[in-house]
Design goal:
alpha+beta; 6-stranded antiparallel sheet; 5-stranded antiparallel sheet; 14 helices; 20 strands; elongated
Length: about 650
């Protein structure tokens, strides 16, 4: 006994350990999956936000770049629109100092409108392209520029003289032209070796020529004829006003303007200095300069990785001359992702300990009822069906406990029912033996009493007594016949039968009987019901018995309803016979199918009708149910399968209790 108890507790402990390990493992796996999923979501979100941010930064940078170009264009158009400028150019060429001073003051005024002021210049050219006067803003001050140079080689000079409107674009200005106005050295940038850069230059002039935001506007005389041109420009080489302005106002981490693949203006730092002279990586070179497409993504800029966007800059002929770049340091986002992922991992790891403790508690809650159930099972095996286990909580364990207790209750009830069935079987055997012994004497009594009644004249004082003997003998014979029908094993011989026609015929026959006077029949029989396999000799007895019980429950008349139709699964026929009579009391509802149980007055019933009907239904593999309310009526529901599993085989009456609603 001790070894059995030890074995049970060992099994219980193993189950508890398995549950704890399983719950903890689930928590660990869930945590790992959660960490991975969260990390992927965070990384995807961060990457999406990075791309959105760099796209926003580029839009702002382009807006600032275009604004700067429009300022240059406004300077050229404003100065060229001076009404007397054409005449003053002629005067300056003639040596008129006052005319020169006037034009220079106007040049200073229009240059002063540019904000922020950087490496800006304004040139006034005559109709041959020679510089008449020039001024610039360099090193935070206005200063005159050399004059007399020939800018007729400027690509747009000829079109400017023929045009009527100001134009602007980003252009490459050769070193020779820049030298004529003293800006060649200011445009010069020494090339530096850059990791991941291409070996060859995009433009061989890189490092000497200048990338210039430049505008040109014709000077018109009173006859609307071109007499010269105004050229305004912003030399981007070595000028940081625009990139710093974009960084400060738009909040962009890094901004760079490239001449070809050479950095000529940038706030990217290398060893604390601006990374001028460094060049593009080859991957960006191929995308932006060679294929003329924007580039977005991670790029190696000078000496670290950035989330970048590059867009090409085009000159007046739609040729790529440079690139505008914005970038955000990848390390910033990487550090943020790393910190977030580490905190997520810490949170999930910290959750494992309480999960393990909670798993231990839950395992104990689960195993304790199982221990009670195992103990109760041993007692049931010893024959104690009255034992009950506590019902813990309201969850599945409580449901299991209630189901176990219900099983024990049903087991006890089944045991009692089996005992009762054995008694009924014994009583049936006894009744069959007694009925066989009484049947012949009763037949003789009935025969001779009928003979005596027929021989006695009317009015004889013994005639009523002999008639009473005959009636009682006939009644006794009916009881004996019922006992025989109940006790003997009858054979069911089935054949396809139209159940609807059978019910209709029984109703029509009942209408002709006096005992059904005052009863209103309601037929609700579905048309086209399929034929079912029943014994046509026995099944009418079931419905006749139910109809007679219904009419007996309505002594003052009422309504009897007969329904027939297919079941929901279309595999059975459901017949319902209901009345509006006195109903059956709840305490009798479970006894009505028991043999010899009747509530009718003495001499009006044997108590075998429903028992026999029940047996016939069971032999047809059907179900009979009853619903009743006192003073409202009773409803009998008969469910018969359309096809029997086995046919033409004797089937004994089963006295198993009927399922009641």
């Amino acid at each position: 006994m001790k070894s059995r108890i030890w074995l049970f507790h060992g099994i219980q402990d193993r189950l508890q350990n398995v549950l704890v390990i399983a719950f903890t493992l689930i928590a660990v796996v869930t945590s790992v999956v959660g960490i991975w999923t969260t990390s992927v979501v965070v990384n995807n979100y961060a990457e999406r936000e990075e791309n959105l941010r760099v796209g926003r930064d580029m839009n702002l940078a382009l807006a600032f770049y275009e604004r700067s170009l429009m300022q240059i264009k406004g300077v050229a158009a404003n100065l060229a629109s001076e009404p007397t400028l054409s005449d003053r150019i002629i005067a300056i060429q003639a040596g008129d100092l006052a005319a020169r001073a006037y034009v220079e003051n106007r040049m200073i005024a229009v240059l002063d409108t540019i904000y922020p002021a950087g490496s800006h210049f304004v040139l006034v050219l005559d109709d041959s392209g020679r510089i008449v006067t020039a001024y610039g803003f360099f090193d935070h001050r206005m200063q005159p520029l050399p004059v007399g140079g020939d800018w007729s080689r400027f690509a747009h000079f000829g079109t400017t003289l023929r045009g009527q409107q100001a134009s602007a674009s980003t252009e490459v200005i050769d070193e020779e032209l820049l030298a004529q106005i003293g800006l060649a050295e200011r445009a010069r940038i020494a090339l530096k070796d850059t990791p991941k850069a291409r070996s060859d230059l995009f433009d061989p002039r890189e490092g000497t020529a200048g990338l210039v935001q430049i505008a040109w506007s014709p000077i018109l005389n009173a006859d609307r004829e071109s007499t010269g041109a105004v050229i305004a420009g912003h030399l981007i080489n070595n000028d940081f006003t625009l990139v710093d302005r974009i960084q400060a106002v738009a909040g962009v981490d890094t901004v760079t303007i490239f001449f070809g693949d050479l950095r000529v203006s940038t706030n990217v730092r290398e060893d604390g200095e601006r990374a001028l002279g460094t060049r593009l990586s080859e991957a960006v070179f191929d995308t932006v300069l060679s294929r003329r497409e924007p580039f977005t993504g991670n790029a190696y800029v000078v000496n670290e990785w950035f989330i970048t966007r590059y867009v090409p800059l085009f000159d007046h002929s739609e040729q790529v001359v440079g690139i505008l770049y914005v970038g955000a340091r990848r390390a910033t986002f990487t550090e943020l992702q790393r910190a977030l992922n580490s905190r997520i991992a810490f949170i999930f790891a910290a959750a494992i300990v309480p999960v393990a403790l909670l798993a231990l508690l839950i395992a104990r809650v689960i195993t304790r009822p199982l221990e009670e159930m195992a103990r109760a099972s041993r007692l049931v095996a010893q024959g104690n069906t009255q034992i009950r286990i506590p019902e813990y909580g309201i969850g599945e364990v409580a449901v299991l406990g209630r189901a176990f207790n219900t099983m024990l209750a049903e087991l006890a009830e089944t045991q009692a029912r089996l005992i009762r069935n054995e008694k009924l079987a014994s009583m049936g055997q006894l009744a069959a033996g007694v009925a066989h012994q009484l049947n012949n004497p009763l037949g003789s009594i009935l025969l001779f009493s009928d003979i005596v009644v027929s021989e006695l004249p009317d009015g004889h004082q013994a005639r009523p007594d002999v008639q009473m003997i005959a009636q009682e003998a006939h009644r006794a014979k009916e009881i004996v016949t019922g006992l025989l029908n109940f006790a003997r094993q009858q054979t069911v011989w089935t054949q396809p039968t139209a159940i609807g026609a059978m019910l209709h015929e029984l109703v029509e026959r009942a209408r002709q009987l006096p005992k059904y006077d005052g009863v209103e029949f309601v037929e609700r029989i579905s048309p086209n019901l399929p034929d079912i396999e029943v014994d046509p000799a026995q099944m009418p007895n079931v419905f006749v018995n139910l109809m007679e019980n219904a009419v007996d429950a309505m002594p003052d008349g009422g309504t009897m309803t007969i329904k027939a139709g297919l079941s929901e699964d279309r595999e059975s026929i459901v017949v319902t016979i209901s009345d509006t009579g006195c109903g059956i009391p709840p305490e009798n509802i479970n006894e009505i199918f028991s043999p010899f149980f009747t509530t009718k007055p003495f001499g009006q019933g044997t108590g075998l009708g429903l028992a026999i009907a029940y047996g016939i239904i069971k032999k047809h593999q059907g179900i009979i149910q009853v619903k009743s309310k006192v003073n409202e009526g009773t409803e009998f529901v008969v469910r018969l399968p359309i096809r029997l599993h086995t046919v033409n085989r004797p089937t004994a009456i089963d006295d198993e209790s009927i399922l009641l609603n």
